Amino acid sequence: MKFVKIPDIKNTWDNVVIKTLSPSSFSWIDTGCSYQLLLQKALDSFNDRRYLLPTSKSTLIGTIIHKIYELSSKKELCSIKDLSSKWEELVKAQEDKLRHYYPTLQNVDINDYDKRNKCFRYALSIINSSSHNGGNSEKKKTYSEYWIDCTDIGLRGVIDKLRLNPDGIDIIDYKSGVVIDETDNIKKEYVTQLHLYAIMCEHLKLGSIKSLSLVDIDGNRHFVKYDKGLNASYLIQVQQAIRKLNQIIEKREFNNGLKPCESCSLCSVRHICEQRDMGQNTIFTDIIGVVKKVISPNLFELATTTGDTITLSGLEEFHLDMPEQYVDKKLSLINILNSNMAQPSSSYKISNNTIIYEL
Fold first, then answer.
1. Helices 231-251 + 188-203 axis angle, to 10
2. What is the C-alpha separation between 306 and 132, in angstroms, rounded?
3. Residues 119-145: pLDDT tens digits?
4. Closest by alpha carbon to 197, among 242, 143, 251?
5. In what order do the strands lie in the sheet with 209-215?
6. What are the start-end ranges of the H helices in 204-320?
7. Average pLDDT of the chain?
8. What is the pLDDT of residue 281?
């Protein structure tokens, strides 16, 4: 086995142009790190799924939940037996992908039985509702995972559920995480996302907006008041964001979009970002370093980008072809185990969640 080698992203920037933002990505860069989005685009340009860190297990479960709701709405799932069978099928498909793309990742179990049970309860309510209201189906059209493209105004994305009624449009977004913030209000980013979906629907003349809502993992529906007066402001902000991102790329002024924060430890591109907070005072740590010595097939010594020297053990699990080939190579170590979480350590080891890349 060999570690996956990620090409140098410095050679990709001339090919990276931001033309559109999804509602979720706009909400993120409005408050988060724009550099994350740019690095994601750079990796996307290679068109190789192996270079991307796996989507979080929570997000993967969220994707499965969305699919269950979609199939329930279409009456393709009609019973607990159907739901259970489809859930296991979708979970297995995601776990097989993880095994295929990430050979160093030993823990590919993504199942979450609590979320599964909550999903089933709401899916059954969808099934029962559609069976009781079948006579009204001709008066409205319902679409799941509705792709909407408004490149001319800088937006495109996927609406979880779009209902076209004679009296207007219902836009529904499913969320598997927490919907309410610490002030007991719907999170600002979710309000923004729903408004951007509404703007796209009206831009394409699909109809007037009747309702915007979120459905949480417990099946609770949270309505968001649509303020059409904010549309012009939102569109200006989206187009300003796109211009700013392209200027950052053109001038290579990536520090203008960099915003290191607590979420660095969860960032989807932390494996290629040398500007992040390495967070070594945690059980699981991410480190970028150059291999200085192969002490044994099981033990490497590395010099980190912060100037420290560490050892990494447990490498024999990977049955590496010619371990000595990695001397003087830069490795990105994701989810390695800190032997002393109380303080920065000099000794780390492989965990079941470890992913290693050569940079």
1. 100
2. 63
3. 999 999 999 886 655 545 445 688 888
4. 143
5. 141-150, 155-165, 168-174, 209-215, 221-224
6. 231-251
7. 90
8. 55
- pLDDT on residue 277: 60
- Give pTM, 2 decimals: 0.84
DSSP 254-278: GGGT----GGGGG-TTTTT-TTS--
How large is the angle between the packed helices 23-31 and 231-251, nearest 10 degrees? Answer: 70
Q: Encoding tokens for residue 244? A: 């700013």
* Higher-confidence position of 289 and 343: 289
Question: Do the beta carbons of residue 64 and residue 86 sit within 8 Å?
Answer: no
Burial (CB count <10 Å: 0-12, 13-18, 19+), residue 55: middle
Give the whole-angstrom CA distance, residue 229 versus residue 234: 10
Region 73-88: what's the mean pLDDT?
95
How is residue 31 written in tokens?
A: 């408050």
Type of residue at 135: G
What amino acid is encoded at 194 in this protein? L
pLDDT recorded at residue 283 = 79
* Residue 133: partners with Cβ closer than 8 Å, 6 or more residues away: none
| Neighbour tally for 273: CB within 10 Å | 21
- Do the Cβ atoms of 43 and 204 come closer than 8 Å? no
Torsion (CA) 31, 37, 38, 39 in degrees, nearest 10: 120
Ordered alpha helix ranges (H), the chain: 23-31, 34-44, 57-73, 80-101, 113-132, 188-203, 231-251
Q: Which of 94, 123, 121, 124 is nearest to 109 (CA)?
A: 94
Residue 176's pLDDT band (boundaries 50, 70, 90)?
confident
338: amino acid identity, one letter: N
- pLDDT at residue 322 greater than cutoff 70: yes
